[in-house]
Specification:
With 501 residues, this protein is mainly alpha-helical. The chain has 22 helices and five strands. The termini are far apart. The structure holds flavin-adenine dinucleotide (FAD). Flavin-adenine dinucleotide is lined by residues 243, 252-256, 259-260, 289, 292-293, 295-296, 299, 357-358, 361-362, 365, 383, 387, 389-391, 394-395, 398-399, 402.
Length: 501
């Protein structure tokens, strides 16, 4: 007699390769699995600040990823069931429909996602099915961490990194199941609902030709990107030197949207890096990509350890600063109209494409939280709505870190002007996203407000009309002495910072 099927509830693990939940279910049910993805309206609803919790570009990326996953599952013999609704309801119905004995899924570390998993667990009790949750989105497995309990996770990243590098090992990735059984009778698969199923106001904006790259959702596109970056362009060999670049597709891997949707696993990336080190070159850059993936792990484990504190104003350190809640200023930051070119260029790139470099993210976050002193959670919520690669633990963890309420014991401010001059020395990035400033000579491009109105007009800029006056007094915000490499605002240009991030 063939075993009862097992439902695999897919979440941020939209791949067949190195997918622990799928792999285990396939083994335990001899291939009789029913893979299902639920479009949960709670994840996509509008939030209190007036924008969707997660936005339209991310929704489109997920749609593409679902289509790709369905194709892969069909190749294996099954297919993907996509349903709209609360997983606790959808899965209970499906269990009854296919007479499943269990639901397997990947753990998510954050509170809302855990609450949904708890609701699913309770619902399964009601229909007589068991649940099995597995860990699977990190480089290091949670069971391999050198801590008795997660609460012992170090508060500082460097200590975590040294601990895992010395005392843990990375498990090899698992291959996709070789074959699956056809889906149970009466279960339809393959239809990916339109964007309006996520949020009825969603409409895909036109692609912006200035985008650093086109991100296509799905496992096949993820593998192609990794292959192109590492093998075809040999870009890994110089990752450490180029990763802060703002303009080029191969400045950094651009893997984040695929990693966060789970279209590729970090262990598969790690395995490819190992292979590259054996076949081509092993250097600081090859190590640095793994170093960054360990940052990703750190935020994920931190999220699991601190629970709701990841989203609290005082952060994981319980700080008590007073934050401003100035909607007008916040709106200018969101729309890229602060009058500070480097900030505005980055925010415009985010708004037009859903992507922003790590350097950009650090600067705009610091500008909002430290310079404008606006509630950092607003910034994190805006990022969550706009980013293609949104990952709650990386997003809120990094926001806390930059805002001085998180896992960085030092309270630091980025001097966004010295950062702009360092990372956009010729101004090509600002010119790409702020064409109003295109005629300004490079030496004035990052600080147009230092010029007299008449001088700006000579370069085709009407201050306060075609280009906004700065939202804050920049001379007070960044006193000249702080722009020196040793000043309080030296960003990550100093040695210690370069090493830490
Ligand atoms: C305020 C702020 C918010 C952020 N929000 C997110 C987010 O929602 N989702 C997200 O994936 N990353 C986030 N990051 C981290 C980082 O900016 C992006 O991962 C990176 O820019 C993605 O580009 P890439 O894939 O080319 O990175 P690469 O430089 O090629 O790095 C490779 C991978 O390492 C991981 N990584 C790199 N830097 C970090 C980091 N600082 N923290 C965690 N993981 C890292 C990512 O998975 C990335 O894809 C945030 C950073 C800041 C400062």
């Amino acid at each position: 007699m063939s075993p009862q099927p097992i439902i695999v509830w897919l979440r941020n693990d939209l791949r067949v390769d190195d997918n622990e939940a799928l792999w285990l279910a396939a083994r335990h049910a001899e291939g009789r699995v029913v893979p299902v993805y639920c479009i949960d309206p709670r994840q996509w609803a509008d939030g209190p600040l007036g924008f969707a919790k997660m936005g339209v570009r991310r929704a489109q990326f997920i749609r593409e990823s679902l289509a790709s996953l369905h194709a892969s599952l069909v190749r294996l013999g099954a297919g993907l069931v996509v349903r709209i609704g609360h997983p606790e309801v959808v899965l209970a119905q499906l269990v009854a429909q296919v007479d499943a004995r269990a639901v397997y899924f990947h753990d998510e570390p954050t509170t809302e996602e855990q609450a949904v998993a708890d609701a699913v667990t309770a619902a399964m009790r009601g229909v007589g099915a068991t649940v099995q949750s597995v860990w699977g989105a990190t480089l290091y497995h949670i069971d391999d961490l050198p801590y008795r309990e997660l609460e012992m996770l170090p508060e500082v990243f460097t200590n975590f990194r040294k601990d895992v590098e010395r005392q843990a090992r990375i498990r090899p990735p698992r291959d996709a199941p070789e074959t699956l059984c056809a889906l149970s009778e009466g279960v339809t698969a393959g239809e990916v609902p339109p964007l309006t199923a996520f949020n009825e106001s969603f409409q895909l904006p036109e692609a912006d030709p200035r985008a650093v790259m086109v991100f296509q959702g799905g496992e096949a596109a993820a593998v192609a990107r990794l292959d192109a970056y590492i093998w075809e362009h040999d870009a890994l060999a110089s990752y450490k030197e180029t990763r802060n670049g703002l303009l080029e597709v191969n400045d950094s891997t651009k893997l984040s949207p695929w990693l966060s949707a789970g279209c590729i696993s970090p262990r598969r990336v790690w395995q490819q890096v190992q292979s590259y080190e054996q076949r081509r070159v092993q250097n600081e850059s090859t190590y640095w990509l793994i170093f960054e993936l360990i940052w990703r792990d750190y935020f994920r484990f931190l999220g699991a350890a601190v629970g709701a504190r990841l989203f609290r104003l005082g952060g994981i350190r319980g700080r008590t600063e007073v934050w401003r809640q100035d909607r007008g200023m916040f709106a200018r930051w969101c729309s890229g109209e602060t009058g500070v070119p480097f900030i505005d260029a980055n925010m415009r790139e985010l708004n037009a494409t859903g992507f922003m470099s790590n350097r950009g993210r650090q600067n705009v976050a610091s500008f909002l939280a430290k310079t404008l002193q606006i509630d950092w959670r607003w910034g994190a919520a805006y990022f969550e709505s706009m980013l293609l690669d949104v990952d709650p633990t990386s997003n809120w963890g990094n926001w806390q870190y930059v805002s001085g309420v998180g896992s960085d014991p030092r309270d630091r401010v980025f001097n966004v002007i010295s950062q702009a001059k360092r990372y956009d020395a010729e101004g090509a990035y600002v010119r790409r996203w702020c064409p109003e400033l295109a005629e300004l000579p490079s030496e004035h491009l990052h600080e147009p407000y230092l010029l007299q109105d008449r001088a700006l007009q000579r370069h085709g800029i009407e201050p306060g009309v075609t280009w906004p006056r700065p939202v804050v007094d920049m001379k007070t915000a960044y006193p000249k002495r702080s722009s020196s490499p040793r000043g309080r605002g030296r960003g990550r240009s100093g040695r210690a910072r370069g090493r830490s991030r």
